[in-house]
Structure formats: structure tokens, C-alpha cells
Amino acid sequence: MSLRRFRRAVALVLELVLSIVRFWLLRLSGPLTWERRVRWVQQTASNILDSLDIEYRVDGQPPTRGLVVSNHLSYIDILVLSAAMPCFFVAKVEIGGWPFFGKAARCGGTIFVDRSSLASAQSVAEQMTERLKLPIPVPVLLFPEGTSTDGSEVIRFHSRLIDPATSLGVPITTAAIRYTVADGTPERELCWYGDETFVNHLWKVLGVGGFEADLWFGEPRVYTDRRRAADETHDEIAAMREEVGEAVVSG
What we know:
By secondary structure, this protein is an alpha/beta fold. It has one domain: 3-Layer(aba) Sandwich (Glycerol-3-phosphate (1)-acyltransferase), CATH 3.40.1130. It is 46% helix and 15% strand. The protein has helices spanning 3-28, 34-51, 76-84, 101-107, 118-132, 163-168, 198-207, 226-250, and strands at 55-59, 67-70, 88-92, 111-113, 140-142, 172-181, 211-217. The protein has a seven-stranded mixed beta sheet with strand order 1-7-6-2-5-3-4, with helices on both faces. The two termini are 33 Å apart. The model has no long low-confidence stretch (mean pLDDT 92).
């Protein structure tokens, strides 16, 4: 094991333990409101990124309400987006069974969806509607691609879970995320997709040096049609990623 991997692994384990302690102190200090829960997630995500030596840059204004839609490259997206803003995630149901991360996601208010089940999608849409109505500055975040990718393209957005936002008339904000490595390692090497296991990917991340994430937020817009919202936000995010990529190359 390289020194870098060992150091990061120790720092990560220590942060996970400390985050559990902070959560129990949070429970003892008062009611576990949604806002307090997502603030705990935000702090934990920021500290985990520090433990992994992952820096991130934000361009644009993170929203405080409505729906946020983003492209999806890896579980690291969740850490970066959580650190950038408090939010409720809509995530695949498998994550709920992960050690620590599944429990942490539940504690932070993540809504889990089984994308193979119509009944699950309907239940999730109802939960999203309830969260979007909450009078707190916390948006709901959705990955409309439905899966993580290798970053070569932003694949088609599914519109079903965008419907709660269009039905309520709340703003929808785009977010585009992109990874870069100082030594020129291709972005796809940092994406978690296909059949690669979580452990193998995390092992790879622990050894990568000079890892950065660029996160761009678009302007919030209100849509009345979910399919139009899916198509236009998809195109906007694809264009944002291309622009970020050109800026990275020229820089």
C-alpha cells in the first residue's frame, strides 16, 4: 500500500467515526429537524473530501429551493454536491444497503428509488413533492440519467421524477460536474460505472493525486412540462460540461 493510500484511508476511517459522534451529539442537543440533518451531511461530506484530498470549485450560485438536476459520474458527485449546498438526494435504492453511507444517507433525508418499480417511482414522486413544499432553504437533488456514466456524454434524462417540480411550479436548477487530475489522467478513470465494485473504485481514488472537481450551477428556471424540462436541462448540462472541459484544456 502506498503512503498516500494509507494516509487517506486512515483519515477517511477517522472522519467516518467522528461523523457518527457528531450525529449522536446532534440528537442529544435538540430535535432532529430536516435542516439540521442536511447540515450534518454537508459537514460530513466536506470533511470526507478533505480526508481524500479532493478539492472542488464552484461556479454559479447554489440554489436554496426547488429541484436541482445534475449529470452523474460517481458517488463522489454526492460528496461534492453535498459540500457545496445542503440538499435532499434522490438515490438508487442499493445505496441504502451500503455500510455507513446507506445509514448516513437515510439520516440525512435521502429518498431512495427502485428504478425498476413503477410503484417505487410513484412513492418517490410523492416524497419529493412533500420535500419541495417544506419551508426550509433545502432543494431536492436528482440525477435524471438514472445511472452513473464514464463521462463521455450526458445520456438522456428520464422525466418521470422531474414531474413533482413541474407540477408544483418550483424552479429547476442545472448542475454540471466534471473531474480533472493534475497528471492528465482521463476523467473516465475517476468515474464509477459499469461492473466495477465500490471497493475497487475507492482503492483507485485513494491513490490518485491532484484530484479536483469542477461544479457549475445554471440559472433557476420554472417549467410546466416535464419532458421539455428534461430535454432542456439535459442540453444545458451537456453544454456546461463542454465549456468546463474547454476551460480546463485552455488553462
